[in-house]
Structure formats: C-alpha cells, structure tokens
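Extended Data, record TTLL3 monoglycylase
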Amino acid sequence: AQEKKIFMVQGHYPTIRRLLRARGWVERKLPGVGRQLEEHRSDQKKQQLEKGQSGDGDGKGEASYLVRDQLPNFIWTNYLDATDRRLLQQDHVVNHYARVDAFTTKEGLCLSLQNLPWIEQADPNTFFPRCYRLGTMDEREAFIEDFCLTAARSLLKLALEEAGIGPVGTEQLPNSTNRAGESHVSHPMHSTARPGSPLYPQLVEDALEVCEQHLGVLGHQDIDRSTPFPCRTCIDWDRFLQDYYRVAHEGAGLVLSREQRKQCQNLLRCLAEQLPQLGMEGKLNIWILKPGAESQGRGKAGGSREHTEASHPGGVPPSLCSTGVVCTTRLEEVLQLARGCTAPSVQVGKWVVQKYVERLLTIFGTKFDIRQWFVVTDWKPLTVWFYQDCYLRFCSRPFSLCRLERARHLCNVSVQKWYKMSPDQDPRVPPDKIWSSKQFQAYLAQLGRADAWHQVLVPGMKAAILNALRSAQDQVGFRKGNFELYGADFLVGEDYQPWLLEINSCPAMSPSSAVTRRLCTNVQRDTLRLVLDRKDNPTCSIGAFQLIYKE
C-alpha cells in the first residue's frame, strides 16, 4: 500500500504548504478552521464551474476534505503545545521537541551553560557573555560581586586611557585596518576631565587593591566558583561605585602616578590571562537586563508606537520596564528594575542580567548581529546540521555607548521595525537593515580580513551552538523521528570572536527584506529535503545544510 502523505500546518507557513503539496502531500486542515475553509472553497468552486474554470488546485480542496478525519504524518507548527498529542503515532514527524526551554529561553540557557564545565571541557565565558538569574539569591549575590569587580577593572582601564595609554588587550588583536578609512571598532575614547572637575586620587588605589586580591583568588579558584568575594569589606563599595560613575559617565578626572600606571598595566595584563571576557567587557560596566522566560525578541518591541527615549544619568525611567530589555550602567538600577517591574510578560524573579559586549565590531558605525540557523534531527545520538547561509540585522541608529536606547542596541527585527533610519545614520547601512552573509564576507575582504569568516566566525558559531546543545541535552524531551529548526543570535567582537546571545526555537520565517525572503524560503526548502527526502534517498541534495556533529 502506498504510504499516506498527510500533513498539517499551524501558523503562517505558505512555503512549507507549497513545497509539501508539490511533493504530493495532502493537507489536513486544523479542526474548526477546516470546515470554514471548505465551505469557502465550495462557494469558489461553484463560481469557477459557472465560469468554465477548473477546480481548486487540481483537486487539493477535495483531497483535503477527504482526509479531514485522518491522522497527519507530518506536522509543522509554531510551538509543540499547539499539537494534540493524541494525533501523534510512532511514525509521525513533528517539527519540535519538548522541554527545549533549557536552551531556548534566556534563563534556561544561562543555567544550562553554568553546568557546561561538568559536561564538556569547555568554558562558557569564551563564547557566552556572563549571565546571572536575579531570582536566585546566590546568583544575585554573584552578580553584585561581578558588577563591583568589573567596576574596579574598568576604573583601571579609564585611568590608563586618561594617561594616554590605549585599552589593554588590543595588542593581540588581528590587523583590522579599514581600507575605506572609517573606524569600525566601537569603543569611544573616554572624554578627558572637564576643567575644574573633581579628582579622585584614592580611587585608583582602591581599584588596584581590589584587582590584586581578585587576581590572587583567580589563581587558586576551583571549578565551583565558591570562593568568597575578595575585598568585600576592604573598601567602602557604595562610595567607590558612586565615584566610579562620576569618572565613567560624568567626566570626573583621575590622578595616576607613574608607579600606579605600571601597576595598572601589569594587573590588567595578568587578569586578561584569567578572564576571557576582560577585552570585550569594555570600561563603562554596561549590563543588559532581560526577562528570563522570553526568547525570540518577545517583549522587546514595547508596543506599536515609537518610544521616545533620552539619556537618564540618574536612573532608568519606569516606562522602560515595559520594553522587556533594558541597558543600564548602575547596580541600583538593575536591582530596582528586577524587583519593581510589573510588566505582565515578566514574572517576579524571572529576570536575567548579562554583561553587555562593549567592544564589538560595527559596520559603518552601526551595531549588527547575526541570525544563524541550525537543525537538530536527533538527540540520541545528538545530530546537528549547520546552515551555511545566514544574515545580519542592523540597528536603525549609529552605535553609541553613551546613549543606551534600544534603536542603537537591540538588533532584532521585531524591535527595529518600529524605527526609521535616523538622519545621522551612515547612508551605506542598507535601508531594510539586512545583509546576507555573502555581503558581510565581501565587507570583511575590504577590511583585509577575508579569512575571519571561515577561520574565526564560523568555527566559533559552530562550537558555541554545540556547547549549548550538549549542556542542555539531558533536559530535552526526546522523541524519535522529530526534528527542530533553531535560530541562534550572535554578536561579533572587534577581534571577530562570535558571542552567543540566545537561541530561538521558532525562528521567524516572515521575510522582512529581499535577503530574508530568499534565505527563509531556502532554509525551509532545505529543511524538508533534510527531514523528508533524505529518508528515501540518503544522497539527495540538502542544500546549504552541513552535518557538523553526530555522537
């Protein structure tokens, strides 16, 4: 008997419907919706017959009606909970796994990657900006310690910069001179102290003491990170942070002796050997606060109207809470927002706070990120396919660490669609704010760094994806025969190192540009080749998919 080919689609996926029908599959309409559609088609058919036209799609409407009571073999849906589990039999295929929130929510990914060193010989700090769940007391305390230590390191960097010495860590950067003569590296020069501004001679001494103690702890630190916070009481932290804010954000000056200058350089050089994120973390101690249960940019758009935002040196306005994601430079703001936000999308205690990548690569002075697809076709053994085409998403306004509104800092299409390009935006930024990876590779070649894509970025993205999957593997609800297409989002450091931000379990397939129209169509086509055609013909084309891991 011929194998049944009945499919069901939940959501707006015209490409999936078209490709399955072209293969001879018949669609079973969703209950309730199907009857209305069939009545509509019946009326259409009567009109067509009266005009002498042929029927609907060579009988597809009738075929769909005939299978209305049969179980679909293939289900493509927005999310697994939309699937009636009673419809599933052993040989049925669904495009989702259960319990993937262990790596597709911000809180889940944060927790899973904390466990990575016990599972793999890999350090998440080399590819995932450090992250804390503020609803957990231990992690909230760890974040407070991290914020203070980062402020101390940042102060040493600012002191050296004010003394005319460049940022520590750049000596090892690859040559990235822009032949077009524009600076693509993002960190702004710290403005020198205003005339008559106060000076803080003791501040550098305090920062040196803290960093020396921290370096001593790092030298004897074991994997469980249970070492108590160094120098918890050796300085007045409230005073230190307030003074640091004045230097970092308000133009106050520093006094630096020649001996202190040497100490700063040596300490930062030693810390860089122990802390993989010392380079990317910058010197302004910016953190990004996110709803932990969300993924896929949910909560980031903040409504249909453009939000007017200004700089708030004294605090983040309460209205920002409703946007879901907030960039901030002050410890008290993070803790206050996490406690006090009443946005309906955020459950109490479900915030995560993550270090903002301050020293990142920009294109034409604009921040961007990379959306990278991959498919898991099996969890036992773990089998991962990497899509070799991806795309870049640009912000609407020029990048600035001094202005933290989301039009400059959140690259998601769901955020940027509410913003027009600002008048001061470089005209070379594409109007639709999307580039293909091919365009990015051409840009890298213009910088004289054509090798960075294949030698640094792609291997780094593959490694980060595999580490995230392995860290969460035991949490996922595995079902043989299922598969899932994911979208991982990456930032690029100024040394071309990719930094994983999040993984989405239902990446958007509605095109927002000519580039995404082509790529989204292609990845859906190639996914069906991978999970359907390859079963009957193991040598068939799978397009741009590449097998990168099979246990």
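Summary. The CA atoms of residues 290 and 402 lie 20 Å apart.
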